[in-house]
Amino acid sequence: MNETTPRPDIHSNQPYTIAVILASLFIPITLLTGQVVKLVMDSTNPAGLDDLGAGLAYLTEILIWSFTILAITVAGFLVATIIQFTRTRSFRAIALPVSIAAIQLVIGVAAVIITRAITDIGG
Prior knowledge:
By secondary structure, the protein is mainly alpha-helical. The chain has helices at 14-24, 26-44, 59-88, 92-121.
């Protein structure tokens, strides 16, 4: 009788789920953080700025917070992906989260390039 041990489901554990969710949040969490910081800074106006409608009002604070949250999200994604890979030793087990992260990266870079081109044109 040939008994085979069942293969564990590579998508049924917590690191996989965390990696997929974090990869999906790269762009949205950064945009949300920027908007929340903008709301807080505009409502409190700690520097006493006269023109809060200007696009550069509190830009430094918005960028610092947005990139910090992005870095934390990416770090969490990397940790979860590495844990998933070391547990399964399978590239299939990390294919979806890595693909989502790559797509997010491409979309993010494309958005920055397009925004820069629009700014250079004068729009």
